[in-house]
Each structure stands twice: as C-alpha cells, then as structure tokens.
C-alpha cells in the first residue's frame, strides 16, 4: 500500500481531506534578494514536494501555495487575477472580521504529521530570511470530521465535477485560468460558553442536528443559521458552492480551542458575501450566532495559481 503510485501534483486545491494540515502564512522581508528567493522557491515547489512525498505515497501529501495581493506584481510581473485584493475587514454591530497581513500561504496536507513537518522544514530552509512568519497553525482531524464545537464540518462541500466548477477560475479570466482564490481565518472558540447552550440551541445556530448531521429549517424569528447565511444562490436557485477544508487546532493545556477556516473559490465575491452575511447579518443586525462563541484572529486573501503558472515563475 505504501508504495502504490498516487499522483503527486502540485497545487491540488481539491486534494483529499487528511488527518493533518499545516497552515503557514508569511510575509516577504525587505532584504534585496527576498523576491528572487521566493520566486525560485515557488518555482521549485514540485521538486520539494517530491523529496518528501515519495517517502510514503499513501500519506497523500499535498501543498497549495497562495499568493497575496501586495506581493503579486513584484513576484510575478504578470496580469493580476481580476478579483484579487487584500482581505477587506467586515464590521458588524457586534463582531469584526479582521484583516491581517500575509504575502504567501502554504496549505500543507498529509495523513502524517511528520510529513507536513518535514516539508515545512525543507521549505523554510529554502526561504530562509526572505520571509517572516505571520502565523503557523497545525490542525488535526477530529472525530467524524467534527469541529471543536462538536458538529460535522464540511458536509455541504461540492463533490465530483462540481469541485472544479466551483473552485477553479475558467474562461472568464484567461490569465488566471486554473487557479483559485483562497480566504483563511483563524478562529478561537469560547468552548465553555458554547457548552452552556443546550444541544437544541447549538443545532439552531449551526442549522444541522449534532449527532446525525441532518439539515434543519430556520426559526420563524428571522434569525438565520450558519448554514443558511452561507448559502449563496444564483437567480435560478442553484448554489454558489465553495470548497472548505477547515481544521480544528488547539491545546487543552492552555485552554486554546480553534477552527482554522480555509475556503477555496472560483469567485472571491462569493466568500466575501458569506462573510458579510455572517458578520453584518441577513437581515442586518441578525449576525451569525456562531460568532458569539468564535472570534477571528486573522483574515487574509490569496490566489493559488495553477501548477504550470507556478513552475514558470522563474523562467524570465
Ligand atoms: C468558526 C468557524 C466555523 C465553523 C466552526 C464552521 C462550521 C460549519 C459547520 C458545522 C457547517 C455545517 C456542515 C457543513 O456543511 O459543513 C458549516 C457550513 C458551512 N460553512 Fe462554516 N464554519 C465556520 C466558518 C465559516 C466561514 C468563515 C465561512 C465562509 C466565509 C463558512 C462557510 C460555510 C458554508 C458555505 C457552509 C455550507 C452551507 C450549506 O449548507 O450550503 N463557514 N460550517
């Protein structure tokens, strides 16, 4: 099994869910060689991935790199993806989706924590002082793909042919074709407050039952659930899906309990609309009650170009 050939393709935004993931966000330093070092590291990312993933092919290693708006022009000298801009803060009456810096995101996934670790170690060796780390979060898969609030997370993700259709830019923006916008937010939870709610109250907030994960209708009060606020529809009623690979993280010893939100999308505006509906509310004032127990510490937007775009970065 461990020697079976499986594709080791860079920029697999649709890579399978894994037991372990590292989310690494860095900014470029002002050193004279920083941009060159980053460019050659990104162009050689496929070799770096091979170095590590060949050691256990069954561990389903994948790394996706996202490039932030501020560094795009210097790094690529190529046309910008049409929707790419920095994360825009969303200010609701009670909660704020903060915007935090980040030039590059590495979303590193594997069944094995040691493989994520080893890849990140070799990556950081190559990047050296060209970058400084803004945030590094190590996520793990929790029972039944649950988040730390206790709910199964990821159910409504697209599957099959709907994945590329929802996630990859196509003919609408030819220079960005095959790439994907990424939004990340690192949330920490007030688990003790959440634990004081009854299971029924929690289920109303999420919009699904806790044990068996069945969808629930919203209450008549007008307060919409997390599930409903994040359902964005075309005029014909079809949904604009995004692909999420959220991961729990934390440390009971230091009372840290979190969810690292990561969303991949073909249309950045869809995730921005979701954030507006969560933080401002729909109707305005009735925000997503998940936020009364979950606080975003970061918020950053990236564009993950196609693998061929990345490999050619160094060719000029
Ligand atoms: C505290 C962080 C978050 C937690 C713990 C969380 C958890 C969940 C859970 C348990 C579900 C229901 C099951 C499922 O379909 O996955 C869900 C649905 C969903 N969430 Fe979140 N979520 C978080 C943040 C976000 C954010 C920031 C966004 C978007 C900006 C988002 C977008 C969605 C979408 C699109 C759905 C599916 C809605 C549908 O049924 O079509 N979530 N989330």
Automatic annotation (TrEMBL):
> Known Pfam families for this protein?
Dyp_perox_C, Dyp_perox_N
Q: Which InterPro entries match?
A: Dimeric_a/b-barrel, Dyp_perox_C, Dyp_perox_N, Dyp_peroxidase
The prosthetic group or cofactor this protein requires is: heme b
Which keywords annotate this record? Answer: Iron, Metal-binding, Oxidoreductase, Peroxidase
- The Dyp-type peroxidase C-terminal domain extends over 145-307
* SUPFAM superfamilies named in the record: Dimeric alpha+beta barrel
Instruction: Give the family, as the similarity comment puts it.
Output: Belongs to the DyP-type peroxidase family.
Query: What name appears for this protein in its UniProt entry?
Result: Dyp-type peroxidase
User: From which source organism is this entry?
Assistant: Penicillium cosmopolitanum
């Amino acid at each position: 099994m461990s020697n079976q050939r499986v594709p080791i393709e860079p920029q697999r935004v649709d890579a399978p869910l894994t037991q372990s993931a590292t989310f690494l966000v860095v900014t470029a330093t002002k050193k004279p060689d920083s941009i060159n070092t980053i460019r050659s590291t990104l162009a050689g990312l496929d070799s770096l991935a091979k170095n590590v993933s060949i050691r256990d092919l069954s561990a389903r290693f994948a790394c996706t790199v996202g490039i932030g708006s501020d560094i795009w022009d210097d790094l690529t000298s190529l046309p910008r993806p049409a929707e790419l801009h920095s994360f825009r803060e969303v200010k609701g009456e009670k909660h704020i989706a903060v915007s935090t810096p980040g030039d590059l995101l590495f979303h590193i996934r594997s069944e094995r924590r040691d493989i994520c670790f080893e890849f990140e170690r070799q990556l950081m060796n190559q990047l050296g002082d060209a970058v400084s780390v803004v945030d590094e979060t190590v996520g793990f898969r929790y029972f039944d793909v649950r988040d730390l609030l206790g709910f199964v997370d990821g159910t409504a993700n697209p599957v099959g042919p709907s994945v590329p259709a929802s996630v990859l830019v196509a003919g609408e923006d030819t220079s960005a074709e095959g790439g994907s916008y990424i939004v990340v937010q690192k949330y920490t939870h007030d688990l003790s407050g959440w634990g004081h709610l009854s299971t029924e109250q929690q289920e109303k907030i999420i919009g699904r039952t806790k044990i068996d994960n069945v969808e629930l209708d919203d209450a008549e009060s007008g307060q919409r659930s997390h599930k409903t606020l994040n359902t964005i529809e075309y005029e014909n009623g079809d949904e604009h899906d995004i692909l999420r690979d959220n991961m729990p993280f934390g440390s009971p010893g230091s009372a840290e309990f979190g969810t690292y939100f990561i969303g991949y999308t073909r249309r950045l505006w869809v995730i921005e609309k979701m954030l507006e509906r969560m933080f401002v509310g729909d109707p305005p004032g009735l925000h997503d009650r998940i936020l009364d127990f979950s606080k975003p510490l970061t918020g950053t937007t990236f564009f993950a170009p196609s693998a061929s775009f990345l490999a050619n970065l160094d060719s000029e």
